[in-house]
Amino acid sequence: MPFISRNLIFFHNTIAIPRSLSYDWDIVRGWDPEGQERWCVTLIIEGTHVAKGYGKDIAWAKDKACWEYCTAKGLHPPSY
């Protein structure tokens, strides 16, 4: 679940989201790359899937449109 500070929302203590943006998260049962069953958390900002995490590991969506969207919103995901 996100931790909310005065101006930013920290998702898994990794991704800082400006509070001015609408966000949601979806938690589903899934599997990590090693095939272990995990609860998978997906972060959605203004209707756009931007990141997915298993436990404390966060992976930005590997999608150019998502990367451009995040960059435009000032979220600065890592480049691919």
Write up this protein.
With 80 residues, the chain is mainly beta. The chain has one domain. Helices cover 11% and strands 49% of the residues. The protein is built from one helix and seven strands; from the N terminus they run E-E-E-E-E-E-E-H. The chain has one helix at residues 64-72, and strands at residues 3-4, 8-11, 15-18, 23-31, 37-45, 48-54, 57-60. The strands form two sheets. Strands 4-5-6-7 form a four-stranded antiparallel β-sheet. A three-stranded antiparallel β-sheet has the order 1-2-3, with no helix packed on it. Strand 4 and strand 5 (37-45) form a beta hairpin. It is elongated, with a radius of gyration of 12 Å. The chain starts with a strand and ends in an 8-residue tail after the last helix. The model is unreliable at 1-5 (pLDDT under 50).
